[in-house]
Amino acid sequence: MMEKLSIIGCGTMGHSIALSAAWTGFDVKVGGVNEEDLNRADKGLQNKLSVMVENELVDKSEAEAIRSRITLLTSLKEVVQEATFIIEAIPEVLEMKHTLYQELEQLIGEDVVIASNTSGFTPTSLAEKALYPERFIVTHYWNPGHLIPLVEVVKGEKTNQETIERAMAFMKKMNKQPIFLNKEIPGFIGNRLQYALFREAQALLDQGVATKEDIDAAVTYSIGRRLPITGPLMTSDMGGLDVFSAISNYLFEDLSTAKKSGRVLTSLVEEGMLGDKSGQGFYQWDENASKKINAEREKTLIHFLKLDRERNE
Hints:
The structure is a single chain. By secondary structure, the chain is α/β, with parallel strands linked by helices. About 50% of the residues lie in helices and about 10% in strands. It contains 13 helices and eight strands. The chain has an eight-stranded mixed β-sheet. The two termini are about 25 Å apart.
């Protein structure tokens, strides 16, 4: 079936997911809190489309067509009218999500899928107060949602097979790379892998093993170069499982098993040094530095997106 998509929440992820859908030809309605919220989303869409044109992902006329397929609205009733598939992308506050779902279920039919873009809450916890928990599922996009292919699809205890199949099929129609989790688990897959690396990076910094610059460089100039092609399990196959098993057996004993944030990170947070958004974190940030790094990251993501397209042609 051809799903009719509505997105609730037009922040960083909401409008980016909308862009991803519109890019593949879907008309999408996006809901925001007020006109100021919608104006920010519109500016975000225009900026992202400009970058896509500059990097020859689309031409100017295609960008205009993509933007024309996205409708920004403040009325929840208007947003979900005629929707068959709803993606929720509001702040990560469970009570807020429950309130929204209860309101939603008064406006939509029982066969409409409700998918959350949450990066942490399980679909079972999200659907615990729902009238029809079988139609709840998680579709976790990665930021920026229009450039990173991965979507983690997670079922809850009561999610039915039809919902799973519709979610997987819809993500594929959006040219995403959906992966399905057989069971609910905190952080899903991507964040568990990301934070395992982040925990060890914090431990190395706290121990004074190397500078922050060299710890970052150890990733960007080595495993970071391989990971776009081979994930950790395929990499171990290529290197020899006997070798990787032997190294695991002696190295795992020495890796960090910290249960909380590291000393340096905790200190930075307590001092209000929160990174890019505050101007200081592990690194110093100003407007120029932020623009430069974000532009470089977008350019690299676009490069890999083009490679994906070439492989699939």
